[in-house]
Design goal:
The protein is mainly alpha-helical and 273 residues long. 71% of the residues lie in helices and 3% in strands.
């Protein structure tokens, strides 16, 4: 209490803030953040996720460098080799990291996370377009030219890219454009999540089919390398499928969700975080 003597001689007492209550609230908040940052098992599984992602990129690079004559900007094979490497980096590794971005940076504000999420997707589009160009261009300069869009891999690749661009456009408009009504954001959110997972899963399937298609071309040209190369690439495909399953597991596991913050805005039963 604070005692104040008024002009008429009367005494007035006013309550003072309870420092213990303020301190307790701050301690509770700090404990909550500490608990959120120490989710049992998350750091281990996230480390495995990153190691496998980097291993996939290195494996594809080693395969193309030592089995498929390497990279270059002249010659059909060397130009075409950029395609699987760039697609693995963008539509597999970067895509997976963008999906889990809200899980990994739990104490960052939601607005910053949205901007970072959109930035990663922008990088995927830029380097993905370059990867598509190398794949199409190598078909055109081949002698004789290789037909375009004849395989299931190419069909699923087109569908994956269209779905990704649709996701990026709808997400940018819905969640970063300030004039959009909150009820519209709430209605779009569950579909954005579902189609995001489906697009990533489709990118995994498309990549596995692409590896199989490329090794079939190699079989027709260099039989003596097929045994070792085929075994190596089959292992890469299995690891790729496991990597995709691991990403989906981390994404849907309730314990790994990011806790909602007071200024987060729209959520959908916590699945957005």
């Amino acid at each position: 209490m604070v005692t104040v003597e008024l002009e008429n001689g009367s005494i007035h007492e006013t309550p003072t803030p309870n420092n213990n209550c303020v301190s307790n609230k701050q301690n509770d908040h700090n404990i909550e953040l500490k608990k959120e940052n120490q989710i049992p098992g998350y750091l281990s599984i996230y480390s495995v996720f990153q190691l496998i992602g980097i291993l996939l990129i290195l494996s594809v690079f080693v395969w193309l460098q030592f089995y498929r004559t390497g990279f270059g900007f002249s010659g059909t094979i060397k130009i075409c080799n950029w395609h699987p490497l760039l697609m693995t980096i963008t539509f597999i590794y970067l895509f997976a990291n963008s999906i889990l971005h809200f899980r990994n940076f739990r104490n960052t504000t939601k607005q910053k996370l949205k901007m970072q999420h959109a930035t990663i997707h922008s990088c995927i589009i830029i380097f993905g377009v370059l990867g598509l160009w190398t794949g199409l261009n190598s078909n055109l300069i081949a002698n004789p030219p290789i037909p375009k869009f004849y395989s299931l891999h190419s069909w699923l690749g087109i569908i994956t890219v269209v779905m990704f661009l649709s996701q990026f456009t709808s997400g940018f408009i819905s969640f970063l454009y300030p004039e959009i009504a909150m009820k519209y954001k709430e209605a779009v959110m569950p579909y954005h999540i579902i189609f995001g997972i489906l697009t990533f899963a489709l990118s995994i399937v498309t990549s596995v089919l692409g590896f199989s298609e490329k090794i079939m071309f190699a079989l027709n040209q260099q039989h003596e390398h097929m045994s070792t190369e085929g075994l190596f690439l089959n292992c890469v495909g299995i690891v790729l499928i496991f990597y995709g399953a691991l990403v989906v597991y981390i994404l849907i596991k309730p314990e790994y969700k990011r806790c909602s913050k007071p200024n987060d805005g729209v959520t959908h039963n916590g699945t957005l975080n």
